[in-house]
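Progress note, sequence design subtask.
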């Protein structure tokens, strides 16, 4: 099944593979997030599916929104996050196969999953502050839950990029394997989950994530407001320009 730039394949082992097809970096926009949400909703409605593997074609898992493109201005944060919130509402356990970079909103997408399988070569960054921007995609909620408050502050304040090994030490990825095995390992974990009683797994997941959806929606509303405010600053313009020119930004605080 095809949903825009997203494909859905349902295996005989009750595991659904949802794959993003925007190589090499799989930047997202409103249309892509809507396609992912529709794929997740389709899986939720099927009795022959018990877990999802989220993966991506190309070099990167997801490099977030391409802020330098004009379309990024029309796909504002509130519009994007209305679709992103639907991913958190899915009832199905999700294992993300992170074969490359998960940057900015792409890190948020990876953190929306229940588990992340990666390799040492994978890269993770909440690089928003290096763009003169506020973080988004509910990282306010998900990142501290996954790595702890202090590690989350470190990653958010510095915007630094970390590799798979440090991500594993922080708990940001749950399995660390060689690059060629990332997708297979993610599928193996999803298959193991699918082997448990499906009603029990869904009930456990609903209990464990009971406050998450409401928290995510509240966080995204605040994140979107801050992003809209900071879009008008000179620092944001400089951050995006510096990234495009591959040079250190020169921020002035205005």
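Output:
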């Amino acid at each position: 099944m095809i949903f825009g730039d997203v494909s859905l394949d349902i295996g005989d082992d009750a595991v659904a593979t949802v794959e993003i097809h925007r190589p090499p970096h799989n930047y997202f926009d409103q249309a892509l997030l809507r396609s992912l949400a529709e794929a997740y909703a389709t899986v939720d409605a099927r009795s022959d599916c018990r877990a999802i593997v989220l993966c991506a074609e190309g070099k990167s898992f997801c490099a977030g929104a391409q802020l330098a493109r004009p379309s990024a201005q029309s796909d504002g944060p509130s519009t994007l996050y209305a679709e992103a919130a639907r991913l958190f509402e899915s009832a199905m356990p999700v294992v993300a196969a992170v074969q490359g970079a998960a940057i900015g909103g792409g890190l948020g997408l990876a953190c929306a999953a229940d588990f992340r399988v990666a390799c040492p070569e994978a890269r993770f960054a909440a690089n928003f502050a290096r763009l003169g921007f506020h973080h988004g995609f509910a990282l306010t909620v998900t990142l501290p839950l996954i790595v702890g408050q202090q590690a989350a502050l470190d990653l958010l304040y510095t915007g630094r990029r970390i590799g798979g090994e440090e991500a594993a030490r922080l708990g940001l990825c749950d399995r660390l394997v060689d690059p060629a095995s990332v997708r297979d390992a993610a599928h193996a974990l999803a298959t193991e989950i699918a082997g448990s009683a499906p009603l029990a797994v869904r009930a456990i997941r609903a209990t464990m994530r009971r406050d998450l959806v409401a928290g995510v929606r509240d966080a995204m509303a605040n994140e979107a407001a801050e992003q809209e405010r900071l879009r008008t600053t000179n620092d944001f313009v400089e951050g995006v320009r510096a990234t495009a020119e591959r040079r250190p930004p020169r921020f002035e605080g205005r």
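The first strand starts at residue 2 and ends at 3. Work on this subtask will continue into the next period as scheduled.
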